[in-house]
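USER:
Try writing one entry.

ASSISTANT:
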Amino acid sequence: MQYCKKAIELDPTRIEIVKEYGVALITRGLDNDNKKDIEAGKELLQKVSTLPLRLRTDKIDIKHSKMLLNDISLCPGYSRDEEQEISEEAFKKGQK
């Protein structure tokens, strides 16, 4: 979370950074039942589509931001490449 906050301070118009910080805030909010974090994360995800396109992945990040806003339960374990399994069972399975 600390690195996301610093990154957004350095470049608040970079789509990937804004999206990832939003996802991190929502995830922390869901984990701690903190509505303030969830709302702050949603605001960042909404902001993504207003930012200038700079990288080839920006269009994907815009699409994913909308998807995540529609279902914030997808934020924990979110990855642009693929959803990550975050259960204890998946962790144990990966240790073998």
Notes: The chain has a mean pLDDT of 89. The first helix runs from residue 2 to 10. The helical segments are 2-10, 15-32, 35-48, 58-70, 88-95. The radius of gyration is 14 Å.
